[in-house]
Amino acid sequence: MKQEKIKFIRYPGGKQRILNLIIPYLPARDSIIGRFIDPFLGGGSVFFAVSPKNALLSDINEELINLYIGIRRFPSKIWEIYKSFPKTKKAYYEIRNMNTEGMHLAFRAARTLYLNRTCFKGMWRHNSNGQFNVGYGGQDRRWVITEEVLREVSKKLKNATLKCSDFEPIIEEAKEGDFIFLDPPYKPGERELVNSHYVYNKFSYHDHQRLASYLIRATKRGVKWSMTTSSHLDILRLFQGNRIIPLQKGTGKSPGILTNNSGEVLILNYWEDFR
Ligand SMILES: C[S@@+](CC[C@H](N)C(=O)[O-])C[C@H]1O[C@@H](n2cnc3c(N)ncnc32)[C@H](O)[C@@H]1O
Predict the structure, then answer these.
(1) CB-ligand 1 contact for 40 (6 Å cutoff)
(2) How far, in Å, are 17, 21, 51, 148, 269 from residue 273 at the CA level?
(3) Is the minimum distance from the CB of 38 to ligand 1 under 6 angstroms?
(4) pLDDT tens track for 93-138
(5) Residues 147 and 198 in one domain
(6) Domain residues for 189?
(7) Are 225 and 26 in contact (CB under 8 A)?
(8) What is the pTM of this model?
(9) Of 136, 155, 174, the domain-final residue
């Protein structure tokens, strides 16, 4: 299968850098009978690499989903607006401070793309009023993308349903024949997971427990899924009985065997090799 790397946004925790370790364990495009479902879409690197015929893509980040919906519909218009935004730091803060209420979808998407490409390290952070509050990072990453990239993204999204949602209802609607790829927020090897319940805007241990219980239900319905997550023991305990592949370099040759330095793992609820 041709593995495509489309990167139109910068995304913290994106899987671009380890796609070559993940993709061999996932079903190829033609082996997915139903839909490819991604409840934690982010930058969508796995979706673009698999390039499925039919997809359900979702994320809790509303601005991000609006960006995808906008690009699917208006790739060229968004490019024109994106190009027109000035390059100064002052302009960045003016555009960042705009009120998005009632804003045309194309303008809103172009604004999000511009903020993502010129903010500090491509971070996504909002204050308690939901306003994007990452500082200016510079113009270095702005012209890495082109109108063709946006057109390509638009084409890839034509057969996808896009939703802004918590992961629960998205996993719940998966049926036998669908394939779910999950990349929830985590920090590789993160410690103190159990004690970090109440941090604002953070994916807590309770969320991982919630995720585990919905994936157990999906497995019972005959749904196949694969997830990248932290190799922290508190997390692995939640997914006992599944296949665990360490992802870090140097440990990948012994699938199922965890070593001390494997910070990230791929968990699969199936044992067959698709490739
Ligand atoms: C690690 S990122 C996914 C990165 C993506 N796989 C990539 O390669 O770019 C995790 C995503 O989960 C989303 N998220 C956080 N909490 C969520 C929740 N409760 N339900 C659905 N999505 C959530 C975040 O907005 C973020 O986009």
Answers:
(1) yes
(2) 22, 14, 19, 35, 12
(3) no
(4) 999 999 999 999 999 999 999 999 999 999 988 887 778 899 999 9
(5) no
(6) 16-60+165-268
(7) no
(8) 0.91
(9) 155
